[in-house]
Design brief:
- By secondary structure, the chain is α+β, with helices and mostly antiparallel strands.
- It contains 2 helices and 4 strands, in the order βαββαβ.
- The chain has a single domain, classed as Alpha-Beta Plaits (2-Layer Sandwich).
- The strands form 2 sheets. The chain has a two-stranded antiparallel sheet. Strands 2-3 form a two-stranded antiparallel ribbon.
Length: 57
């Protein structure tokens, strides 16, 4: 299941990108997940201090 970022909640802190072992997340103003690289490991969910990252429905 793809990972989604709540663009309104994301603060662009970069904690998710640091936690991502496969470098699937980039951060400019907000985080963006490359679905082709993402392994759905969940590390970014745990790392996000504002809970802006979740599994897409």
């Amino acid at each position: 299941m793809p990972t989604k970022v709540d663009q309104d909640a994301c603060t662009g802190c970069g904690a998710c990108a640091e936690a991502c072992a496969v470098d699937a997340i980039t951060v400019d103003d907000v985080a963006k997940v490359d679905a082709g690289l993402c392994t759905d490991c969940g590390a970014c969910f745990d790392a996000c201090p504002v809970e802006a990252i979740s599994k897409a429905d």
